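Open question from group meeting: does this chain pack into something compact, or does most of it stay loose? Before anyone orders reagents, we agreed to write out a predicted structure and look at it together. Recording both the input and the output here so the notebook holds the full record.
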Amino acid sequence: MRVIAATNRDIRRMVREGRFREDLFYRLNTVALRMPALREHAEDISEIARELWGRGRREGWRTLNRAQAEALAGYCYPGNVRELANLLERAYALDERDFGRLLEGYRTVTGDADALAGATRTGLPDNLEDMTRLHVSRVLEKHGGNVTRAAAALGVSRNTVIKYRPGS
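Structure tokens returned:
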């Protein structure tokens, strides 16, 4: 049997403090890999963002441009790659003009590390359904309220656009 485990805790220190069984540590600690935090290799953030964007890209989505990728690289992500991926997921649902607002509340890579954990994201809906509604309303507006054309642009059915249009 093989066990693959990950933690954000200092297990060696926990063993020294008696908070983790030493025998279990040595059974599990065959090959240890340390993954540096994203802020420790900020130069890779734009490339990671491009890769994540490409994986989630669907027909009709715009590409992540160089300026956007570089803007993402200037920020610190306490949740590491998972947080960056979540930020990009929110970006998929928004209009390009809202991209800059996604970064509100994030601290720069050189920012105060203690403040990073409390960073808030303001100015955007907090849940996917509201963000979807916002995006659908913008696409509808772009297509003069025509549900069929908006659905085609989004790559979804007319019923989906009707479900998420404002006032529904």
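Observations to bring back to the group:
The chain has ten helices and no strands.
Confidence is low (pLDDT under 50) at residues 110-123.
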